[in-house]
Amino acid sequence: MSPAPSHPKITSALLKYPIQNYQPFKGVYILLRVSSLLVLVPFWAIYFSLPSNRGRRSWKISECIVMHLIKWIMPLNAECGIAPASVSKVREPREGDLKETHFVWINPAKEERIRGMARDGKVKGVKVPGYVWPKGAKLDDLSDGGVVGLFIHGGGYMMGNGTETFGELNIARMLHKRSNMKRILSLEYRLCGDSCHPAQLLDALAAYAHLVETLNIDPKRIVVLGACAGGNLVMMLARYLYEEKVLPMPGGLMLFSPVLDMGIDFEIAQGTAKPRPNTDIDWLATSHLANVRLIGQDHNEPEILFGPYFSSNRAQPGSYTSYPPTFVSIGDAESLREENEQLVELLRGDGVDVTFDVQNDAVHDFISMDAIPSDQARESAVQNHPEERKELIVKLLSQDPGNYKDAPTEGRRILEQVTGESILRGQVLETISSFHIAEYIRLSTTINALLERKGHKHALLITKGPSHRKPITPQDVRPEPLYERVVEVDERVTLVGYRSDPKTEEHAVRFDEAGKVVRGYRGKGWDGKGDAEGVGKVVRGESGEAVRVMKGPKRSSKLHDEGYRSLAIVLLHSYTYPQHELAVGKVAREVGFSHVSCSSQLLPMIKVVPRGVSSTADAYLTPILYQYLDGFFSGFDSKLRDGKIRSPRVEFMGSDGGLVDADRFSGLKSILSGPAGGVVGYALTSWDEKQKTPVIGLDIGGTSTDVSRFSGRYEVTYETTTAGVTIQSPQLDINTVAAGGGSCLSFRNGLFLAGPESAGADPGLTCYRKNGPLVVTDANLLLGRLLPDYFPKIFGPSEKEPLDIDASRAAFEKVVKEVNDSYGSDANAKKEWSFDEVVYGFIKVANETMCRPIRALTEARGYATGQHVLASFGGAGGQHACEIAKLLGIHTILIHRYSSVLSAYGLALADRAHEIQAPSSTFYTANNKPELISRLDKLEAEVREELRKQGFEGKRVRVERMLNMRFEGTDTALMVLPEGDEKAEEGEDFLKAFRRTYKNEFGFLLEGKTIVVDDIKVRGIGKTFDSLGETVFSEMDRLRESDAIKAAATEKIDSMHSVYFDQIGRVDDTPVYLLDKLDVGEQVHGPAIVIDDTQTIVVVPGAKAVLGRKHLVIELD
C-alpha cells in the first residue's frame, strides 16, 4: 500500500459528534437554524444587489441567494445526523416509477476480491441497487463501439442516490446524449448515516465486478466516473484496484468537482491548515464531522483519512504510475480547486494522460444544479472530455461575396450540424437559443489595409512646435504618412531638470506623498523650491519626473467640420503627463469623432516618434476593424454585443498571441492577429517539455508564408516594420514572405517568379473557375499533388462545380511555350523543357522563397536549422513540407490533423492576456531598483485584479514582469524578461537579463555605460485550458517501445495516382491514403499522398509517415 504522508494527530475531541446530534437538542437546533432564514434571505437579497458582493460579477442575485441558502442548511447533515437511511433498505421500484432507466440488483463482490482496505470484520458486502441508462439497454451489448460508464453519485457520503431524479444524474444524461458512453450503470451505494467505511468501497467494488465478471465486459471499455464525494469514491476504487490487483483497472476515470482531501477539514479544525480557497463564495460547506460519520466516531485509526485512499491528492509521487487516462473538471470559483490541482500535478508527474478542465465562474457541483452558476459550464465540461467531445470543422473562403456576406457569420453551418436545425443564410441568429451550447466565439483577422494603404481617413494632433508639419517617421524610412492632415495643438509641458546632469538624482525635484513639491535645486545650492519655481505648475508625472504644465489645449471642432471622424493625438510629453491628451480626446468625442487614439493610453512610452507612428496606425486601422465587427454583429441579435449575457463571449486574437474581448480590441493589436493563432496552435500541439526540441512553425497560406520559432516560450518582438511603418506594439516574432498557395506565377526576363502578387480569395485561382490567375496551387494540381476527385464541388459561380484542371493546364501550356521560346536561342540551354519540368520549376522557386525566413530565424541568430522540428500547417503546408525540410536539413516534420485550419484551432487553445505599461525614465541602479520593483508589484496587482474579474486566479494566472532598458547614449531599448537563474529570491536580476539579451542581439556590450529604464511592463496570462494530454513525441516513443508501428495494409490504399517528384519524375502508381481510414501506429512509406477533408499531404520518396492520435509524423532519411 502506498505510504501516507505525515499529518497531525487527530485530537479525540474532534472525533465525537456535537451536542446538537442528540435529542432534545437536535430539534431545537434545527428549528433555530431554519427559522433564522426569515431574516437572512431578505438581507442576502439586499447585499447581493451590489455586483461587487457576488463573488463573480457574472452571477445573478438569485444564484447567490440559493448558494448561501444551501450553505446555511447543509451543515445540518454533519452536525445532526439527519442523512437518509442506508440503501440496504431500498426496495425494487414499482413499474412506471422510472422513466429513463431500469432497475437492477448488484450482488456483493466475491469474497476473494475483498482484502486490505476493503476488509473489515464489522462491515460486510450487501446487495445494492443499480440503475441502467437508458431504459431497456443491455450493458454488455457494445456492438455500436461505445463504452460503458459506471457512475457514482456524490452528496458527501451522507445524502444523494443513484436514481434518475437526483441532480447529479445530469452528468449521465448528457454523456449518454453527447458521447460514445451509450450505456451507464448508476450505483446507489450505502450512505454513512448507518453504514461506515468500508461499506462504500465494497459497494463500488461490487458494481465494478458486476460489469467485469458478471457481464464479462472488457475493463478497457469501462469508464468509472463520479461527482463530489462520488469522485472521491472513484479514486478510492481505483487505488484499491491498483494496489490489490483483484481486477484489472478500467479504461478511464472521470471526476466532476471531486472532493479529494478528506483530511484537511481536521487540520482546519485544529488550526494547522488554512481554510480552503473560495470558501467565502462557494456554496459547499465541508466539515470534519461528515468524515467522522464516514469512518465512525469509534474508529481506532482515523488517520486513514490522510492516506491515499481518502485523500488522493496527498499520495506520494510514483503512486499513479500506469493509471488510465483521467479527466478532471472543476469550477474556478469552487473551494476544492487547490486539491484538484495537486492531484493533477501528481498524475502528470507519473506520466498519466490527464485532461484538466476548469470552468470560468463555476462553483462546486455546477454540472448538477440548475439554481447555481452553471448554465454554460455544465455543457462545456461534458464536451471538453478529449475522448468524448466531437470537433467539427467547416472551412470557408475568407471572401465569397457572391454567396455569403461574412465568413464568420457563415459559421451557422456548424450550428446546423450541432442543433440539427436549418438556419437560412442571412437569418439573424438569436444569441441565447442558437448559442446555448457555445462558450465563446473567437475571431482573428489580418487587416490588409496597412499593406494596401486602404485604411481610414484620419488626422493627427501634435504639440505645436516640434512637428513643423513634417511627417512623424523614423529618419531611415520615409514612407508616405498614414494621416492626411496634421494640426498643431498649442499646449506646453516641459520637464524640470535634465538627465545628462551628472548629479541628476541629487538635483531632482522632490515631492511629498500628496504630490506637492518639497524641495528643488537653484544652481548654487538648495533654496526653497529652486527649479520648481517659475511659470506654470510643477507636478509629478507618471514616470516620476517633475513636469511643468505651462499651457493647456483649447477646444476646437475644426477637423470634425472638415469631415474627419478618426483622430490620433500625440502630445510631446503625454507619456508622463497624459491629462492634456485625455482632455483633447474628450472634446473630440463630444464633437462627434467616432474614434480617438490617444498615444498616452495606447503606448505610454517616452519616445514620441514610435509612440506617434503607432498611434496614427491605430487611428488608421481601428475604424476599419470596427466596420468589420459591425458587419459581423449584424448577423446576430443585439444581446451578443451588449455585454449583458454571460456567454457566448466574443474574443479576438491579438498579435501577441493573447485573447482580448472584442470591445477592447484595436487596430494596433490586429496586424498579426491571424498568424498569431497559428503560432499558438503549433506551439501547444508540437512542443515537448521533456525533450525540449525547438520547433519551426511553417504556415503556408494563400497569399504568404509565415514562419516563427518556439522553444518553450513565445518569442515576442516589440518593434516591427510593416509596409514601411515602424510600430511599437507587442507581436509574436513572425517572419513573412510573399509566397503561398495563391502566389501568382509568371516568367519574366528569363526568371521563374512565384509572387509577390497573390490571387486572393476572389476571384481565386485559375482552377476555381472564376477567371483567376495562374498560381502555385495550380502547379501542385498539375503535378498530381492535389487531386480534384477528393475536393468538394464548391467552385465556380454556382458553388457546385469541381476544380478545373483543364483550365490550369491550358494556362500553363502558354507559360511552357514562353519558357522554351526564351531559352531556345541559347546554345548552352537544354533543347526543350518538358511540361512537368516547367511546372515543377515554379514549385522549386516557391520552396526556396519559403526557406529564406526560416534561415533568418535560425542561422542568422546562431541556431542550427537542422536541429529543429518542422511543424507545417496552413492550407498549402502539406504539399511543400517534405521538400522544404530537405532543403533545410530538418529530419522530422509534424503535421497536425487540423493543420490546414491550425490558425483557427489555435484560437480554441489560446490564453487570455492583459498587460499594462508605464513610463519610467530612471537609471537602473541599486538605489532605484527597490522603487522599480515596487512599481512592478503595483502593476502586477492591477493585472491580476483584471484577470480575476475575467475569471482567472491562482495557478491559472502567469505573470511576466519586464523593463525596457538601454545603455545611456544609445537609441535602442530592449524589453527584458528575466529567465531561469535571473529570477532570484531577492527579486528579478534585470541587469543580468539585459546584458544577456543585448549580447545575443548585438554581439557586444558597452561596458561602463549606465543603464536607463525607459518603461516598465507587466503582462498577465490567464490559462483558458490546462493540457492536451500526451505529447506527440511521448506518443511516438510509446508506440515504438510497444512495437505498435506497422506498415499500412495494402487494403488501406484508396486509389493510385500519377504524381511528379523531384529527380525521379512521374510515379504513376503513387498510393493515395485517406487519413481517417488509417489507424494510430500505421506507417506510410513514400512516395505517397495522404488526404483528409481539409488538406493534402505529399510524402516524398524515402520518407516515412506514422499516424498518431493528432499528428502525422514524417521522418526523412
Q: Do you know the CATH architecture of the domain at 99-259 and 315-383?
A: 3-Layer(aba) Sandwich
User: Given the C-alpha coordinates, what overall shape results?
Assistant: globular
Number of helices: 29
- Fourth CATH level, the homologous superfamily of the domain at 99-259 and 315-383: Alpha/Beta hydrolase fold, catalytic domain
Low-confidence stretches: 1-5, 84-89, 374-388
Strand content: 15-25%
Structural class assignment: alpha/beta
Enumerate the strands of the largest sheet in spatial order, edge to edge or round the barrel: 25-22-21-28-29-43-42-39-36
Rg, alpha carbons: 34 Å
What's the story with the biggest beta sheet?
Answer: 9 strands, mixed
Distance between the termini: 48 Å
Mean pLDDT: 82
Query: What's the CATH first level of the domain at 99-259 and 315-383?
Result: Alpha Beta
Q: Please give the number of β-strands.
A: 43
Report on this structure.
The structure is a single chain. By secondary structure, the chain is an alpha/beta fold. Among the domains are: 18-79, no CATH class; 99-259 and 315-383, 3-Layer(aba) Sandwich (Rossmann fold); 450-491 and 552-629; 499-543, no CATH class; 911-1022, Dna Ligase, domain 1; 1032-1115, no CATH class. Helices cover 29% and strands 21% of the residues. The strands form ten sheets. Strands 25-22-21-28-29-43-42-39-36 form a nine-stranded mixed β-sheet, with helices on both faces. An eight-stranded mixed β-sheet has the order 1-2-4-3-5-6-7-8, with helices on both faces. The protein starts with 24 loop residues before the first helix and ends with a strand.
